[in-house]
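Appendix B, example 12.
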Amino acid sequence: MTDDRTTEPEEKSWLEKIAHIFSTEPKSRSDVMDVLKVAQHNEVIDHDALQIIDGAMHVSEMQVREVMVPRTQMTVIKAEQPLSEFLPTVIRTAHSRYPVIGENSDEMLGILLVKDLLPLLLNTDGESFDIKSILRPATVVPESKRLNVLLREFRENRNHMAIVIDEYGGVAGLVTIEDVLEEIVGEIEDEHDISPDSYIKKLAENDYIIKALTPIYEFNQYFGSELNDEEFDTIGGIILQQFGHLPRRNEIALINGYQFRVLNADNRQVHLLRMCEIDDPGDD
C-alpha cells in the first residue's frame, strides 16, 4: 500500500504530461521532443533516429560562426605559389578542397578541387600551369547565416565549401557541408579519423589527432610529457577542466606547452582533438 501511494503521483504526473502533449499542438521544440521521446519509448522510432531529429532541429537555431573553421586555422593556397611549393601542403593535410587567395588574405580568388589538379600533374611540368584557370567560384556567406539555410543552399547549388565573411567583408573562416552534417548526425569518418585500436594519429611533424579518451599515461608515454593524471584519467578530462564548459568545435585550449583544438564534440562530451606543441613564451 505504501509503495503504491508513493509511486502513484509520479505515474499520474507522467500520464498527464503525455495526455497534454497529444491533446494540444506542440508549441515549442521541447514539446516536439517530448512527443518523439514517447514515440521512441513505444519503439516507433529508435534512438539514432531521435538523435538525428534533435540534431536537425538544433541546426535550425545555429549560425555559421558556431561551426566554421576560423581564418587563423584555414589551410589556403596562394595563387602565385608554384606547384612544388603547395603540393606538400596538399599531401600533408589531405583535404579535397582549398581556398586560393591572391596577394592578400582577403582576396579570395576561388576554390581549388584536388581532383581538378590531378590531370595537370600528368600533362604539365608542374611549374608552367596557371592555377587560376582551374579554380571553381567561391561561395561567400555571412557569419550570421543559419545552418539549415546554408545546408539547403549547399544542396541546391551542389557546393561543399563556403567562405565565411564578417560584418566588414573580411574573411572570417570557412565552412563545409560536413561541418553542418556533423551537427545533425554526429561525427563523420574521414581521412583524419583514428583506427579503433589507437588513441593517437600523427598527421605530420608536430601535428596530431588525439582521441579525448586517450589515457593521460599513454599520452605522457608517447610525447614524453608530464601531464598530471592524479585528478583525471583521460585527456578529455583535462580539456574540460581547462575550458570550464563543454567546448564547441574549433575552440582551443593551451595546456603545458600543447595546443588542443576541438575537432568533434556533441552536447555530452568531447570526442576528437587536434594537437601541436607550441613554443613556451618564457623561452624568448
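The chain has three domains: 2-45, 65-185, 200-283. The radius of gyration is 24 Å.
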